[in-house]
Structures are given as structure tokens and as C-alpha cells.
Amino acid sequence: MDSTDQLILRELSRNGRMTMKELGEKVHLTGQATAARVLKLEEAGIIDGYTIRVSKEKLGYIVHAFVTAIMHEPRHQKFLDELDRRQDTVSRYFKTSGEGCYLIECHFPTHQELDDFLNDISEFASYKVTIAIQQYGQ
Asked: Which residue, among 98, 101, 79, has the nearest Cα to 90 in the 3D structure?
């Protein structure tokens, strides 16, 4: 991967909907040469998909929380299944090392719904909650 490939990735990260011609103009290649490079990045698994960013706030999910879960027991599958069932409020989650077992990023319309979620997961884990006040960057 060279500096042109890195520039292609940076530009696609900003706007994955641009045409290969537009992308080529930004990286100083023809549209055809750019498309060939993008295809190679896809085939190598470096680009593994294209997506959109959805504003949870504009959808009414104004409480943005990070929950650190500390599991009660070594078997976690029921807990993970519960997180998967809550795709409307659980944006993503990570297995972690350090203070907790999982870091869960969540969005809720109200504090009451956050509280309901915490009550539900308390069957599986103790938790610590951090509420986001302001987001910077992507």
C-alpha cells in the first residue's frame, strides 16, 4: 500500500459516494486507474464495505452512553445475545482488557430507557456508565 492508496482511503472515508472520476481527480489518477486501485483494496480486505453515518440525535436518541460491563460469570453468550437484540439502542460493543469485560456504546431517547437497559443487563454484569456530553471528530 503506497501513499496514493492511503489518500484513496482517506477520501473514501470522507465521502464513500463519490464517483471514481471524482476520486481520481482528488488523487491525481484517471477514473479507470482509481477504480482498479479501489478494487485491489477491496480484494485485499482493506476496504471491507461501504456504509452511511446516521445521526442518532436527529432520530431522537439524545442520551449517548458508554457502559463498561464487568461480567458476573465466565459464560457471556446470553449477555452478548441480549446486546444483539438491542440493535436499536446498542450501537457497538467491544471485548476489552483492563477494568471491564465489555465496552458498550449506546444511544437512548430518554434517561429512563437507559435505566431500563441497565436494569436488564444487571442480571449478567455489574456496570459503570459514562455519559457523552459533546462529540468531537467522527
From this structure: 79
Contacts of residues 120-123 at CB distance under 8 Å and 24 or more positions apart, as own/partner, are 120/82, 121/67, 121/69, 121/79, 121/82
- pTM for the complete prediction? 0.80
Q: What is the pLDDT of residues 47-81, one digit of tens each?
A: 999 988 889 999 999 999 999 999 999 999 999 99
CA neighbor of 125 nearest in space, from 83, 84, 69: 69
Distance of alpha carbon 103 from alpha carbon 88, whole angstroms? 17
Contact 31, 95 (CB under 8 A): no
3-state secondary structure of 14: helix
- The conformation of residue 57, written as its DSSP 8-state character, comes to G
Any bridge partners for residue 128, and if so which?
Answer: 68
Angstrom distance (rounded) from CA 76 to CA 100: 13
Which domains, and CATH codes, for the chain?
Answer: 3-43 (1.10.10), 57-131 (3.30.70.920)
